[in-house]
Design a protein that fits this description.
It is built from 8 helices and no strands. With 165 residues, the protein is mostly helical. The chain starts with a helix and ends in an 11-residue tail after the last helix.
Length: 165
């Protein structure tokens, strides 16, 4: 009897702790002010940085800043553009991959309600695109690291007591 109660208590404890996962937040949706053209422009900026065009970093920075949600995020967006512009000449991305990277950057910068898991997943997806394109993994992580700082500066999501575990 004691063993059965112990097994039941252990099962309830394990089941309850598994349910304490942080719920996912709302991914950003495109609005009239966020057109596909804006994201396409980021992809063009990525292509210009890969081709080492003189104004590529400034253009990338300007287009990414359109989506910064708070003034606190702006220096991190600037740093992200600087890091990307520094490494993009050494990678090879096709047109589709450039647009995928642009999409991940847009989602990461413009989101206000992502869970930590979602923010980390977007950061990992951006890093994976860069690594696939020829960047060493540790360097790829350094390049996209400002995305975490951007999320900290822009999130409006408060952790609930049950998300601590």
């Amino acid at each position: 009897m004691k063993e059965t109660l112990l097994i039941v208590a252990l099962f309830v404890l394990v089941s309850g702790s598994a349910a304490c996962r942080q719920a996912d937040g709302q991914m950003p949706e495109r609005s009239a002010s966020t057109r596909q053209d804006d994201i396409y422009d980021i992809g063009k900026d990525i292509a210009n940085a890969m081709a080492q065009r003189q104004s590529a970093q400034e253009e990338l920075e300007e287009d990414l800043h359109k989506f910064a949600q708070t003034p606190e995020a702006e220096p991190h967006v600037t740093e992200l553009a600087r890091r990307l512009s520094a490494v993009l000449p050494g990678v090879t991305l096709n047109e589709s991959e450039k647009q995928q990277l642009a999409e991940k950057l847009w989602q990461s910068i413009s989101s206000k309600d992502l869970s930590e898991r979602q923010a980390r997943a977007l950061q990992d997806q951006a890093r994976d695109l860069l690594v696939y394109a020829g960047l060493p993994e540790n360097e790829g992580m350094l390049v996209v690291a400002p995305l975490a700082d951007i999320q900290l500066a822009t999130t409006e999501r408060e952790r609930r007591w049950y998300e601590v575990f």
